[in-house]
Amino acid sequence: MNNQTTIKLLAVGDVCGSLGRRKVLHTLPAFKKENQIDRVIINAENAADGNGMTKADALELFAAGADVLTGGNHTLRRREVYEFLDQSDFVLRPHNLPGEAGKGYCLFDMGFASLAVLNLAGRVFLEKSGAENPFHVADRLLEQAKQDGARFIAVDFHAEATSEKRALGLYLDGRVSAFWGTHTHVQTADEQILPGGTGYITDLGMTGPVQSVLGVKSEIIINRLKENDISKFEAADGECMLNACLFELDRATGKTVRVQRVIL
Fold this sequence. Notes:
- This protein is an alpha/beta fold.
- Helix content is 26%, strand content 27%.
- It is built from six helices and 13 strands.
- It has helices at residues 17-34, 55-64, 82-87, 134-147, 162-172, 218-227, and strands spanning 6-12, 14-15, 39-43, 68-70, 105-109, 114-121, 152-158, 178-182, 192-193, 199-201, 206-209, 240-250, 256-263.
- Strands 1, 2, 3, 4, 11, 12 and 13 form a seven-stranded mixed sheet that branches. Strands 5-6-7-8-10-9 form a six-stranded mixed sheet, covered by helices on one side.
- Helix 1 runs parallel beside helix 2.
- It is globular, with a radius of gyration of 17 Å.
- The two termini are 22 Å apart.
């Protein structure tokens, strides 16, 4: 644990399949130790080959150093993971998506204070997901975090539209410690501390093959867009990258004092 006046929270972008998991396993432990990272939150909605996540995938990421796993619109596609979602306190899926399995809120006891993690999904360009309004759900979850006495609050907003991510981030500014977007797999260069003290980045990016289209073999996506070929997606291979963002939070106020993009 970092003994300074801050805590360091690392948020890792969408892990893509077995290659992404391997990158986390080979990269995260040393980075976590060298930088005295206190807590790690990883988006694992595509951690399985194909999409979704299995229990085995989650356990592998926990073993690599994750403290909390968040999800997205693919998390509930594998019914075999439903029981695990219900059983695990620290494996989340977007709270505002329909479905009985799992939840999008957890409270992590850090000893001197608690960290609440919220996982929400966007609705713009994702209308078929049936997601409840994330602004309303965020308000309810923040009330829960307040009742639970959380000093630090982190939000993973799994959404397509930059505008929706930005709007929710600004709406929550000053009420949460850190806010980041996931889902689009491309890291944005807009990390910042918002006026109210919330650390922000529109999208973390992804953890997966560098030479790919969002983790998928490039030729498959090119043919789909150029020739309307609907061949099944296949994960790309080759060199991988880990995209993340490091938030340094003041222990007394819970607000971000430093934010830094990470590419490993």
